[in-house]
Recover the amino acids of this structure.
């Protein structure tokens, strides 16, 4: 039997480190790590990781480059070809498209977290070619949090459970199968007496563990935080020294939160005013307190304000200087991803036309340019273009619109790297129209998912058990874990860097990709440690040295003022409200009671279920068997009022579209709301347009989610999925 390896699980995005062993029958057994690990507590493994090898070895996995030889896009006539043929043809077509439409006509959607091995080289390739049009699901999931954190305190803030005496959770339904290592961290924190405040409309298991549970109305998080800030300021519970020395805009903030007295906040959120007050007092006085990242506020109409208000809470209560919240930075021991990306190579005129710049500039090059000087000041000139998880992103709505309508300019080549872009955003029909209007679609992935069904070429991607990496790939986490390779890639699967470099060579960019393979690239990235990979991988974790941002006379944080900007100069400069606010979304029973008569339910979308991760692991097997059908959840009383029994197929319809889902009753859901799943498709069905791309057009939540302006957060331009869309449900 082979020796055990330590591997950072990449079946979801928290990267629990697990143990992997190749058994005598060739199968890989994954189990929780048996030795003490600095960042992964014991017993941290979930069903996705236990079953990782069933996905790796699944009969449907793509093992060779495939070319669609059908006459129409979406026709499923796949022919096996060699890597050289695939890469030669892709490069030739890309050259012609760039010659005709310009380099910005290349759009890319990437999921960095499931890749890890390209270390920023895909952006480097794009920057050297001259295309700014990179986007990712991270635009509405943690990447945008990092962008808004940056606006307020210079970089992404990582909550340290071990250093927190009070945790504020926002809709985080952790479990043994959902971010299990953080669930174990939570249990350990509670065991030593840490307080827990939970904001969640649902009565979840985590809500039941809380000292204070605030069952707020979906989408009202910003109002609730403003009410908490009101209490903390008016009751003089804030850290006066920190506010005086390290914050700007306190007086303006103080004035703003007077607009959010507790009785008004209670009315908006549906929570009890005294409970909100207790939560505010607990957060301010039982600290150090922290707010671990939660996707919930990434997907709301008031997302920017809700995230900003969290930043303000952690600042004015002193958490940022007490170690409960750690401001991220390029890893001090490595060559940074930002450096490898070479954003300086992209001409300024191309940065200015990044899609989204005109309507929603905040997360694009234009909005993020405000952080170039501050990043250079705090992290060194070499990190002027600090990536901070995900920055410089094209707006996905504007990307798909440019692909479909060729306005403001054509995007005619689209590469999707492990991102299943068709299903990953809102307004799936627009994404489909965009993909259909391409002259070249390339998909790097493990399965022929709905996006791959629209590709000209599918390139077989490796699996995390087949690649040695450092996790996380994104920048802003104050540590890095080593992850060992367990087996060679199956079939002809290749790592992402192979694809990037081979294309770069064919596009005449070889000199900028001197690392001949991933091993050389990895050795370059870790070269400041003085170790090569063989030596480097023996150590579990490499902590990053975090500067003392707030030392007397210190360098401060990477904002334009060098201080925490309660009043944001960057938002003000872009013409937005520099202070957080709450505005009722356009489609709620309060703002549109007439519409609510026809659409009486409040939609809750974008939810990942435990056996899956976005649209992954839908293939037949043990993970799919946990919940084979796409399920909608209604409170039994709500279902009864609509005459909808559990176990029946229903239509869920919004003003944008409709979905077919299996109804289940669930007493944990708030009455009057409906929860729909994200990422559901049926790989067992034939692909192509006749089946709605294996059910994606029938079951995925993006079919009912609008990305019209009324449903977008005004600053970031990302779609609201929670609390601002009305829906109705009826029998099929
Ligand atoms: S929660 Fe599960 S899938 Fe996610 S990293 Fe941990 S073990 Fe892997």
């Amino acid at each position: 039997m082979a020796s055990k390896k330590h591997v950072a699980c990449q079946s979801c995005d928290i990267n629990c480190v697990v143990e992997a062993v190749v058994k005598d029958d060739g199968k890989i057994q994954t189990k929780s790590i048996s030795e003490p690990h600095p960042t992964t507590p014991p017993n941290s493994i979930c069903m996705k990781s236990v079953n990782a090898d069933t996905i790796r070895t699944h009969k449907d996995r793509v093992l060779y480059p495939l070319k669609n030889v059908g006459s129409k896009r979406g026709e499923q006539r796949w022919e096996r070809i060699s890597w050289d043929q695939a890469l030669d043809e892709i490069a030739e077509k890309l050259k012609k498209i760039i010659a005709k439409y310009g380099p910005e006509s290349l759009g890319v959607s990437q999921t960095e977290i499931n890749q890890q091995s390209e270390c920023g080289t895909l952006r480097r390739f794009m920057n050297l070619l001259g295309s700014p049009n990179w986007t990712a699901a991270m635009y509405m999931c943690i990447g945008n949090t990092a962008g808004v954190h940056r606006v307020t305190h210079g970089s992404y803030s990582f909550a340290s459970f071990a250093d927190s005496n009070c945790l504020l959770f926002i809709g985080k339904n952790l479990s043994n199968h959902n971010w299990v290592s953080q669930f174990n961290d939570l249990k350990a924190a509670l065991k030593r007496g840490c307080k827990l405040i939970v904001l969640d409309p649902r009565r979840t298991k985590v809500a039941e563990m809380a000292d204070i549970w605030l069952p707020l109305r979906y989408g009202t998080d910003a109002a609730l935080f403003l009410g908490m800030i009101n209490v903390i300021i008016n009751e003089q519970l804030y850290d006066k020294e920190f506010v005086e020395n390290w914050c700007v805009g306190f007086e303006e903030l103080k004035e703003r939160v007077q607009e959010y007295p507790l009785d008004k906040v209670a009315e908006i959120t549906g929570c009890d005013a005294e409970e909100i007050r207790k939560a505010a007092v607990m957060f301010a006085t039982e600290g150090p307190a922290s707010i671990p990242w939660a996707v919930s506020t990434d997907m709301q109409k008031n997302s920017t304000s809700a995230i900003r208000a969290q930043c303000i809470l952690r600042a004015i209560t002193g958490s940022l200087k007490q170690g409960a919240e750690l401001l991220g930075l390029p890893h001090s021991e490595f060559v940074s991803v930002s450096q490898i990306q070479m954003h300086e190579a992209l001409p300024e005129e191309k940065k200015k036309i990044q899609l989204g710049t005109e309507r929603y500039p905040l997360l694009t090059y234009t909005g993020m340019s405000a952080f170039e000087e501050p990043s250079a000041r705090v992290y060194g000139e070499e990190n002027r273009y600090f990536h901070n998880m995900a920055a410089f992103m094209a707006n996905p709505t504007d990307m798909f619109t440019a692909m479909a309508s060729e306005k403001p300019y054509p995007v005619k080549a689209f590469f999707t790297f492990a991102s299943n872009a068709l299903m990953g955003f809102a307004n799936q029909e627009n994404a489909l129209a965009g993909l259909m209007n391409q002259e070249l679609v390339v998909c790097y992935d493990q399965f022929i998912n709905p996006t791959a069904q629209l590709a000209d070429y599918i390139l077989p991607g490796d699996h995390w058990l087949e690649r040695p990496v450092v996790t996380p790939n994104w920048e802003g986490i104050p540590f890095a874990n080593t992850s060992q390779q367990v087996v060679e890639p199956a079939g002809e699967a290749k790592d992402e860097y192979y694809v990037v470099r081979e294309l770069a060579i064919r596009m005449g960019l070889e000199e900028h990709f001197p690392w001949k393979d991933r091993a050389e690239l990895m050795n370059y990235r870790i070269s400041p440690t003085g170790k090569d990979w063989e030596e480097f991988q023996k150590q579990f974790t490499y902590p990053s040295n975090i500067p003392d941002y707030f030392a007397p006379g210190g360098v401060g944080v990477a904002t334009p003022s060098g201080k925490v900007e309660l009043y944001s100069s960057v938002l003000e400069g872009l013409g937005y409200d520099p202070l957080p606010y709450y505005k009722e979304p356009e489609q709620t029973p309060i703002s549109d009671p007439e519409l609510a008569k026809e659409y009486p339910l409040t939609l809750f979308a974008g939810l990942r279920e435990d056996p899956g991760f976005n649209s992954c692991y839908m293939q037949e097997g043990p993970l799919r068997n946990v919940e084979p059908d796409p399920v909608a959840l209604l409170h039994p009383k709500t279902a009864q009022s609509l005459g909808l029994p559990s176990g029946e197929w229903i239509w869920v319809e919004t003003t944008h579209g409709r979905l077919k889902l299996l109804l289940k009753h669930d007493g944990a859901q708030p009455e009057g709301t409906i929860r729909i799943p994200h990422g559901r498709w049926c790989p067992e069905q034939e692909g192509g347009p006749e089946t709605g791309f294996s059910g994606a057009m029938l079951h995925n939540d993006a079919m009912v989610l609008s990305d019209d302006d009324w449903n977008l957060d005004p600053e970031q331009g990302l779609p609201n999925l929670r609390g601002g869309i009305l829906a109705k449900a009826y029998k099929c």
